[in-house]
Please model this.
Amino acid sequence: MAKQLIKNIKGLVLAGENFPRFLKGEEMKNLPILENAYVAKEDGVIIGYGRMDEWEGMIDWRDVEIIDAENQYVLPAFCDSHTHLVFAKSREEEFVDRIKGLTYEEIAAKGGGILNSAGRLSEMTEEELFEAAKDRLNLVLSYGTGAIEIKSGYGLSTEAEIKILRVIKRLKEESPIEIKATFLGAHAFPKEYKENHRGYIDQIINEMLPAIAAENLADYIDVFCERNYFSVEEMEEILQAGARFGLRPKVHVNQFSIMGGIQKALELNALSVDHLEEISDEDIAALKNSDCMATLLPSCSHFISIPFAQGRRMIDEGLAVALASDFNPGTTPTGNLQVVLSLACIKMKMTPAEAINALTINAAYAMGLEDTHGTITVGKRTPLLITKEIPNLSYLPYAFGDNHVDKVIH
Ligand code: NIG
Ligand code: FE
Model:
C-alpha cells in the first residue's frame, strides 16, 4: 500500500525540520522525542508527523495501512557507515589464537588477518559471495540497520576487487535499503608485493581505479593507514588518485598507532576518519571545527581487546562523533548496531542520547545520506525503526544482548 501511518507511538525520536547536517559536542546531548505521536509515509517518503491529538485533518487518511505502536518507540533506522559486509569465510581460528595470547598484529604477521580473507575470497564465485552477503544484510536489517556502507578490500587484485564491488552493486539493486560502496584496494599489501609497495600502488592507481570508474562501482575510497600497512605518504598518493576519479575519502586511521593520518585525511577532504582507538591532542585539535566525522567502532575494540576510542572526551572537546559496526570476519563478526549502542554507552561513556544521535543523524552524514536519512523530516525517505514495547529509550543500550527491534518500515 502506498500510504502508511504509524499511530499511538510512545515516543517519536528525532522528528523535526531544520536539523543541522550533523551534531557536534554539546549538541549531541539533545535527542528530541515527541510523545504520543504519529508519523506517516507515502511511497516511502515521510509526509507528516505530530502529536496524536492533532492528527485529524493533517493528511488524507483514505487507503492507509495503519500500524499501531502503543508502548513502542519509532526512530529513524540506524545507518551503518563502515562495514566490510562482503567477505568469504569466518575466522574462528584467529579468535582462538587471540584467546591463547596472540595479538591481532601478530596473527596478521604470520599470514592471518586480511591476507587470510583475501586468499579465501579468491576461491569463491561472485554468485557465492552475493548469496552470503545477502544473508548477512538481511540479518542486520532485522537488528535495525536502515542504510549501509560496504567496502571492498578482501580482493587485493584488480579482478577480485571488481568482483566484490560488483557484488555490492547487485546488493544495491536488489536490497530495499540505501547502500554506499567504498573501494578499499589499499587494505593490505598482497604477499607478492610485500617488498614492492610501488608495484601494488601502481596497480591500484593505474588498473583498479580506472576499471572501477568505468563501471561506476564506487562512491568512496578508503585506505588502511597503519604501521605494516599503508604509510601516510602512500595513503596520500592513493587518495589523490581517487580524487581524480571523483571518489571522496573515508579512511581507516589510528587503529593501532598515531602516524599523522588524521591530519593528512583532513587535508584531502575526507568525509570521515574511522577507528581512532589511538588519538593525540593534536589529532583532536585538527578534527575540531572540521566537517569530517570521527567514526568510532567499539565492537572492534571489544572483539580484539584493544583500547576503546575516547568517545566521551571527543564529544566533551566539541567533536562530531558517529558510531558504526565495522562488520568483518577479522575484528567484528557482527553487524548488530544494538551491540554497538550498548558498548558506546558502557565502554565509551556516551549517554544513550549521544549514542543514538551517533548512529542516526551523524552516521547518515558520514555516508553522504544527510538529505534522506538520519532524522524524521518531511521529504526524507529514511526507513523507520519500530522498537518492541520498552519502558524508555535508555532501555535499548541497557538491556544488552536482546533484539529490541520489532520491525523496520522500508
Ligand atoms: O576495520 N583494520 C582494518 N580492517 C578491518 C579488519 C580487517 C580484517 O581483519 O579482516 C577493520 O578492523
Ligand atoms: Fe574497517
Q: What stands out?
A: The chain has 15 helices and 15 strands. Residues 82, 84, 252, 326, 328 surround fe (iii) ion (ligand 2) (CB under 6 Å). The longest helix spans residues 197-214. The mean pLDDT is 97.
